[in-house]
Amino acid sequence: MSSSEVSPRESGTLAAAAASRGPWKTAGAVGLVGAGAAVGVDLVTLHWSLGILAGPASIGLFLFFLVGGAGAALTKKGGDHRLRRWSAEHPWQAAGAPAAALAVTNAVTQYVFSSDGIFASIFTGLWHAAILYAIVGVVSSVVGARKRSGG
């Protein structure tokens, strides 16, 4: 499957399918532990505010999509071999699905749980997603290069 054979719409579908191969149960557990630890730190440091859940929820979502997205790149078994090959050949497109999901969920979470307005919430969601995109993209690139070289 070369890039010329795949339309942008199909590319998005392939990216979502590639992300679905991730260890999402483990990602959920890591996200909950991270969010719980952040709530604990806020409570211990007496960081009380109306938006006490906004920061921990943001951390939990970031960890959830980080572990799930990077785990999808690291998964060596199961699934369609053509999908694994496509995600190894297109690491940045594969990283786009978890980043887009984080951007949306984080923006909504920030808007609901914090006193931020809609534009500040969207900006927060976007810059968190950009960081996630970079991390998952680099991990996917390295894993894809190792798979292509036979390592």
Quaternary structure state of the chains depicted: single chain
Q: Give the end-to-end Cα distance, rounded to a whole number of Å.
A: 22 Å
Tell me the number of structural domains.
1
Q: Outline the biggest β-sheet.
A: none
Helix content: over 70%
Radius of gyration, rounded? Answer: 17 Å
Number of helices: 6
Protein structure class: mainly alpha
- Mean pLDDT comes to 86
How many DSSP E strands?
0
Shape: elongated
H/E element string?
HHHHHH
Low-confidence runs of at least 5 consecutive residues? none
How much of the sequence lies in strands comes to under 5%
Any overview of this molecule?
- This protein is mainly alpha-helical and 151 residues long.
- It has one domain.
- It is built from six helices and no strands.
- Helix 1 (8-19) crosses helix 4 (81-89), helix 3 packs antiparallel against helix 5 and helix 3 runs parallel beside helix 6.
Secondary-structure blueprint of this entry?
Blueprint lengths: L7 H12 L4 H21 L9 H21 L6 H9 L1 H23 L4 H31 L3
Helix pairs in contact: 1-4, 1-5, 2-3, 3-5, 3-6, 4-6, 5-6
Summarize the structure.
The chain is 77% helix and 0% strand.
Key features of this structure:
151 residues; mainly alpha; 6 helices; 77% helix; 0% strand
